[in-house]
Amino acid sequence: MTRNEEYKQLLNWPANLTGRGVKVAILDQRPTSYHGSCVRQIIEYLAPEAEIHSINVREAGEDMLTSLEALQWCLDNDIQVVNISADWPHAETREVLFDQLAAQGCIIPCAAGNDSHDYVDHPAAYDSTIAVGAYKQGYSNWGKKLDVLTYTNWEVVYRNQKQTFPGTSGAAPVISSVAALWKQANPMGGTEGFRAFLGRNSEDLYESGKDVRSGYGLFCWKETLEVKSMFDTTNVSSWAIEAQDWAVTNGISDGTNPKGNVTREELWTMLYRFWKLLKEA
Question: What pTM was computed for the model?
């Protein structure tokens, strides 16, 4: 058994969820870099059917976005999970965008930091994000803002060599993968609902309930989540079922009220979403 297989077993990873169709953004170094590649590999392994977007975030460079541009892109593109395995200094302009993403239902797991501090780094410290620490790693930051611990040192491949990816940078994508699976089953869920889910699905390590050393504790799946159809399939004509599924899968319609009248603003919105789909193709 590989280390990754052992970790999945310890996490009690569900077989019925894959993150299918959930939009996940990785705000990191370029995807060909060691750091960006390792983060992506962990999410691809744990949420294999998620729609993953790797965004090269730096404050300068032709093919790079600033953190503000990257967060705005996530807002504009209806990203449902954002992984940040980095520390960014506090900035009110960034905090506003984090709050807007959370208000839109986006889950934002962030690395707590690797400095043995009794406080977590930003952006993990914001109320709108999820602060993720590394289990049994003395360097992992802690404090009242810490939400959860999970395993790090996952096996990855970089430049054709097997390696392990350490730090809270390696822990955050685990919880981002959890978020992708949770959003698959709870597409309308938000940050507080997900935080409560973490609380119900973590093993207490120190004090009962949430504590400063481990947050809610070591994450381990306890609840069984099922993917429920969010749209009406019973009242759809047989010739329209495939089209309905396509429209929902591509974010053009929510699939509800299939025989209802369409207003002009609803038509505009559906056409606009279709145009965006063509533009992204």
Answer: 0.82
